[in-house]
Amino acid sequence: MAKTLKTLLGDHAVTRAFRSGEVSSPELAFDFADVKTAHTAFKRVVRDLEFDLAELAIVTFLLAKAHGKPLRLLPAVVLARFQHAHLVHNVERPVRNLKELEKKRVGMRSYSVTTATWVRGILADDYGVDLGKVSWVTFEDPHVAEFRDPPNAERMPAGKDLMAMLLAGEIDAAIVAAPSQDPRIQPAIPDTAAAARAWQARTGASIQINHMMAVRSTMNSRLSQNIFDLLKKSRAAAGNPDTNPYGIEENRRNLEVAIDCVYRQKMIPRRFTVEELFV
To answer: What does the pLDDT look like over 151-162, one tens digit per residue?
Structure first.
């Protein structure tokens, strides 16, 4: 009889064959959580430990590991992108020099979300911004309950809206999950494609990881391998996109750079080794 795993997984090209059952195993069945987007259930992954198998943001995973949550990664990247275009400003009140953000207010959904963490790393490493001098404006709690925002982060009261604040001039820039349809909201980093290529050349990483797959630490290796094999078949059905590397060695540098980014922002107590994430 197939073992049923409670599963959290969003709708991604590389996972559609997995979700639909187009690729399957007689040993496994998957009970998919009914959520519109996976990130809305990340608290259930790391606080309630509700899922056997879950899509999880890489920064959320690293914070969960730092606080002893019984989870480990599978080396399957289901969402990744360069984050440079996700720092936006209002062109009617533009940020003309990113160094100026040290004296400004920058909004984001939550301080510890992965996109925001990558963008802060870009600002520090490529534009010389002192992150401790920026006033960060947040709207939600972190996924990992034990994590604490830094003292220069301010939580907005209920009812405040990130984009409305940006348009009203209450904040100077914002880190967003997706492009805005409002023509006044544009990337604050000029030529984001060139900036991404420069970041790639400087770090040696192929991509900035957003989400990977995680399982309970107690899951046995045979079952984990079976799941990973299904995920690989699903990725192959989508055409093996370069933005979704699978495998530990294929992701080693990507993960090293992600770990370093989180560590240097003092969000985890030490640099984990890549191997530790999968043990």
So the answer is: 999 999 999 999
